[in-house]
């Protein structure tokens, strides 16, 4: 067996696993890995400005490609800076591998410089966190890391490398006889499939709830095949957005208390059987469980056995890979029934989609946020990749933006870290350089990791940032009303003709990028065209900062039936709780909207 430097062996493993980019910051305790990485002809290292930014860039890469993203840092604070990114990846089932340097094993108990037990810190927010203690284990630990990150419900892994382990003796390793470790994708039980199809076909008003697991499993084609054959409407979750085109006749909108459609909530309340696949029943989706569950029956399919029954007990649970499960369901449906025609239930989906909507055609100044998303939908085509994070702008995005394809709408759903968008745009653009990438950001979120714009400039990565700026901490301020408090933010605000205390256009220009501020709705389309053209021509990010109505809130919770842009027809049913407009349930802090 040939012998080689252990860190060279690690790099060979990374190459064989398909790694093309590694995001990170060099430091003393990780330099042996960096030295080996510098000789790679296949892996390009992207030096980020913050380790958290590196994790989010790896996350954006992974969401587009489905393959693990890589982030590297040194010991101590580098690892702790990665925790938010690890948590985000775990929450959304995204495979990333974070690699940290560490002090020598012999001094870990002596409070050595930048020696922290990062494995124990990371354990709750990873699928696997491990410190390598023997040099000969290195290639095999990395092989296992990729398998763990990919298998079952995907997720993050952390590998901690003490400096003396990295510097250890040569090991016996032959890359020609090594390869990826296999793993099984669980197929569904045949009896369970038959029971699920029977429930679905006997229902009068069935729905398929498509979660992020459908996108992760690349199962959109199988989802449409089943839905079209059985004529069952599909309601995706926020993480499942794009699993079915939003102009498809069977698209039934998005259910929830924040990123939601009125018609979707109404349809869900009328449903009698829900087939949920790859969905975790997050609380921003369900609202109050007793209303969400109602009298309807639930079939829950998930690749992770521990997800079934975690939020509530379904009537039928099936452990299976989403693609295999949907294919099996479609095959069973073809065996027991001819193709179904669209009936009254599908016709009702189309009717509510056409009538139970919210306005977006505002011409007001200051700009109303729904107008921003109307312009985005009109300007960008279905191949555009959108990236967004957390806040009112993300809630408006979920309510108003349309998505036609999987892996074209990236959102950090459960963890919701501010600052996620810019580094995620970097990862997404590297993964799909031929496609337009657009990050929809808020002013406050942009400021969290805006330094990563300099990384995109350095590596000539063009993408567009659309900032929905009310300079008002809108989502937090909206929540504060319920708690009878209102913390002010030290931000100068000079009205629609001025600018907030942070001049975001100047910030972009200071880092070598470009920006433009918009104050009137008629200017948005032209600014978007300028941003795309300038970004591509100069190979830098371009910002369109849109100054919106300062106190615009998102319609959430009971606010859904207080928006009067849609008036129900006389024969429209009343939703749960006696209100019209499709309200499902509301959290204790749900608020009325002034929009």
TrEMBL record:
To which protein family does this belong? Belongs to the TPP enzyme family.
Which GO MF terms are attached to this record?
acetolactate synthase activity; flavin adenine dinucleotide binding; ligase activity; magnesium ion binding; tartronate-semialdehyde synthase activity; thiamine pyrophosphate binding
For this entry, the protein name equals Glyoxylate carboligase
Q: Which reaction does it catalyse?
A: 2 pyruvate + H(+) = (2S)-2-acetolactate + CO2
Gene3D superfamilies with a match to the protein in the record: 3.40.50.970, TPP-binding domain
Checking NCBIfam families in the record gives: glyox_carbo_lig (TIGR01504), PRK11269.1 (NF008431)
Q: Which GO terms describe its biological process?
A: glyoxylate catabolic process; isoleucine biosynthetic process; L-valine biosynthetic process
The keyword Glycosyltransferase appears for this protein: no
Which SUPFAM superfamilies does the annotation name? DHS-like NAD/FAD-binding domain, Thiamin diphosphate-binding fold (THDP-binding)
Domain Thiamine pyrophosphate enzyme central residue range list: 193-329
Q: Which residues cross the membrane?
A: none
Instruction: List the Pfam families.
Output: TPP_enzyme_C, TPP_enzyme_M, TPP_enzyme_N
Q: Which residues form the Thiamine pyrophosphate enzyme TPP-binding domain?
A: 390-546
Q: Which PANTHER family match?
A: GLYOXYLATE CARBOLIGASE, THIAMINE PYROPHOSPHATE ENZYMES
Q: Tell me the ranges covered by the Thiamine pyrophosphate enzyme N-terminal TPP-binding domain, including all copies.
A: 4-120
Q: Name one GO cellular component term.
A: acetolactate synthase complex
Taxonomically, which superkingdom? Bacteria
Annotated stretches, region: Disordered: 567-595
* Keywords, ordered alphabetically: Ligase, Thiamine pyrophosphate
